[in-house]
């Protein structure tokens, strides 16, 4: 059955939140809910779950970017602590919301590529 589908990049399909097999169907039915099946090729997606992987990657990414930036702002401008909370709180929440869905799509696409679920198509 896989012979009829092109060998798609899991990075491209995952970050685009598309079906990892055909690249055409939507991967999510809600914000983070993986569809049961692809509406285009019928791939069973029920066994694909990214777990906490995307959240862990986001924690590492934000820690790497935001902490040095917040320290630089503190050393350069010395704003009051309440201003740090007002600025960095929304930045962290916003970047998390932007990255969470594509990173979950990437994890699902990598699971499909490497067949790390109990269900095979």
UniProtKB/TrEMBL annotation:
Residue ranges annotated as transmembrane are: 55-75, 81-100
User: What's the short name of a Pfam family annotated to this entry?
Assistant: DUF983
Entry-linked InterPro entries: DUF983
Keyword list (alphabetical) reads: Membrane, Transmembrane, Transmembrane helix
Superkingdom is Bacteria
What name does this protein carry?
DUF983 domain-containing protein
């Amino acid at each position: 059955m896989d012979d009829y589908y092109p060998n798609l990049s899991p990075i491209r399909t995952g970050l685009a939140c598309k079906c990892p097999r055909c690249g055409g169907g939507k991967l999510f039915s809600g914000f983070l809910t993986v569809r049961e099946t692809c509406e285009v090729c019928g791939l069973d997606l029920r066994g694909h779950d990214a777990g906490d992987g995307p959240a862990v990657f986001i924690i590492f990414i934000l820690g790497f970017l935001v902490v040095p930036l917040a320290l630089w702002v503190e050393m350069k401008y010395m704003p009051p602590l309440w201003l740090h909370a007002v600025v960095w709180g929304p930045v962290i929440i916003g970047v998390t919301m932007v990255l969470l869905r594509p990173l979950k799509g990437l994890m699902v696409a990598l699971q499909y590529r490497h067949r790390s679920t109990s269900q095979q198509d």
